[in-house]
Structure formats: structure tokens, C-alpha cells
Amino acid sequence: MPFPATVPWSDDLLAYDFGAGHPMAPIRLRLTFDLIEALGLLEAPGVDLVGVQIATDDELTMVHEPEYVAAVRAASAGQPDRVRGLGTTDDPIFAGMHDASARIAGATLTGARAVWQDEPRRAVSLAGGMHHAMPGRAGGFCIYNDVAVAIAWLLGQGCERVLYLDVDAHHGDGVERTFWDDPRVVTISVHQSGQTLFPGTGFAQDVGGPQARGSAINLALPEGTGDVAWLRGIEAVAGPVAAEFAPQVIVSQHGCDTHHRDPLTGMNISVDGQRMAAQLVGQWADQHAAGRWLATGGGGYDIVSTVPRSWAHLLAIAAGAPIPPEALVPEGWLRRVREMTDAELPATMSDGVVAQVHSWVDGFDPADPVDQAIGATRRAAFPWRGLDPLTAE
């Protein structure tokens, strides 16, 4: 069932720029938005392109410590604070850092406001997904945690159940930490194991604080996990919890650094697999959250081939206008990109993979490393939610 889809956007979002050579290059957003435009998605019925405001200090401090916000402002003026992660290799300081970071938070807040209305709708904050930022510290290319700010705003408006699903290759540590002991928010992170990837956290036994056991759910996957196993894990962990929790809003982070071309990670996922993951989230929003779904971008450092296609699919699915995987990438977009780079360009919106979801419950293989990880996660978290780790589906 299609729902109206809000897309917060401003070219000013491209000001989030850590400088030449940094993996979080703003060109990835430029190319994504241009591809979305070339595909005609902005003209799809119900798509509403809206402007973006900089989040206020009151909005940021729903999550972040006031002293940290002050430190980010000082970093904008050239004063690093490495204790708070400002001025590190991952998060170098730059002029205008506060405004650029707060604008991303403002974009995702705009999406949250659109979703939390009497008439359900969806929103996609392409620049959002800064899931590593902690209340008092930057981390992993993230200054302000726009996702956590948006969830905190929803809670402040009376929302009682938010399901956060993070399928970035990296553990969604900042969002988990913010709501670690809050039973109103269930955080599910499906990621490459912290044994082999930053931030080194997010294991099956991490299930939430003493007042919210089972509200943090972590599926740490082996390096090299491919489409079939990855989708199987997402479905096996998030599907039963979405049905049990019955969230009023689903918030999801779709970092596409799980792709096999990504230079910073070790997963083996295709654009087709990422498209299927977005379809799953959309289905769960329809089934359990009255259609209310706020999606964000996140990581993704194969900036020419993967990021634009993956997030174009995300928006298309959220808008109820899915793009066939075999659709050709518009020639006009390819022509513009050829003027900027000699990188290999995709011909279609697919990697040539048929992505399918296979039930874990029906085919658990105790010798398979991914099924072992799924089993560990379900055994650790599901009993706290009244779910049977062996049979819940």
C-alpha cells in the first residue's frame, strides 16, 4: 500500500565535508540526489520534497550533552576537542561543522515530524544515519546523532514504541547507547562483527539495560556474509520482534557499506540484496506500524556505483514506486558522472543477483557460521521478549 513520502533535502547538506580524501565525501549525496531526479522519482505520486532547517540546541540536547554541543560550535571555529572526538582522523574539524551537522539532524527531524501525523506517511532522510555519535562524543564520521534525536522527538510527542533497525555494516552503537535502558525503543543492529570491524561492539549478549532487557538486539555477522545469509539474518531477528513489539513507528538506517565493492568493510552484499532489505522494512511498517516509516542513509563509500543506486531504490520503495532491478541507469546521469570520474559505471539498477529471503526457522544449519550467529542472537534476546528462540517467526 503506497503512503505519501517526504524527502527532506537541501544542497546545503553537502556542506558536511571533512575535506579531500575523507571517505565521507559529500559527492556521494550529490550523485544520489541526481540519480533520484534522473529516474523521475521526485515526480512520483505522493513524493514531497521539502526544505531543511538546522536543528536547534534544544532539539540537539534531547540527546546530546550541552557541553558537547558547545564543543562542536568551538570546533567550527577551529578549536579541536579530541577528548570528545573532534579533530581526529575519523572526525576532523572544519569551518561550519556545527551548522552542517545540525542541518542533517534537522533533516531527519523533518522526516520524523512528517511521519508522526494523524495520517500515516513515510520519509527518507538521505543525508541522515549518523548512528555512531554518542551523547557526549563524535565517532565514526558522525558528529550529531540525527537518528537518536529524531527518535527522542517522537518519544516526546507521545510515541510509546519505536523500532530502530540498522543494517549498516557497522554496529549502530550510538543509537543503542542512547536508548540502552529505555523499553520504549527497541534497537536492532545487523552488522559485520565487531571482532573484525569498527566500532568493535554489538554482540549477541548485549541486550539492553536493567529496565529494558531485550530492547537491544545485535546480530554480529562473519566477514564475507553474502546476500542470502544476510537477508536470512535480518528476517530471522527483526521479523519476529517487529510482530511482537507492534511499533508505532519504524526508523531504519540503510548504510550501504555492506556492499562487496565498499572499500572500508568486508561484507559481500549486492545492491539487489540491499533493495530487498528495504522491501522487508517497508512490509513490516505496513504490517505492524500502520505504514509509519522513517528511513535514513548512513555509511557507504563506493560512492559512484553503489550509494546512488542503493538509496534510489530505498526512496522508490518507501514511495511505493519500486524501480525494477533490470531498469537502465539513465544515460543523462551516466554522462554527467563520466565528466567527473573514470570509475566503472553501472549499466542497470541491479548487480545481476536475484535476492530472495529464506526462512531461518525452516532450515537452520548448526554448522553454518551465520546461522550460529542468528541462533546466538535469538537465544540471548528473544526470551526477554517472550519469544521462543527456536520457533518464533
Question: What would your notes on this structure say?
Answer:
The protein has 393 residues and is α/β, with parallel strands linked by helices. It has a single domain, classed as 3-Layer(aba) Sandwich (Arginase, Chain A). The protein has 11 helices and 8 strands. Strands 2-1-3-8-7-4-5-6 form an 8-stranded parallel β-sheet, with helices on both faces. Strand 1, helix 1 and strand 2 form a beta-alpha-beta unit. Helix 7 runs parallel beside helix 8 and helix 7 runs parallel beside helix 11. The mean pLDDT is 96. One of its GO terms (molecular function) is histone deacetylase activity. Belongs to the histone deacetylase family. Pfam families: Hist_deacetyl.
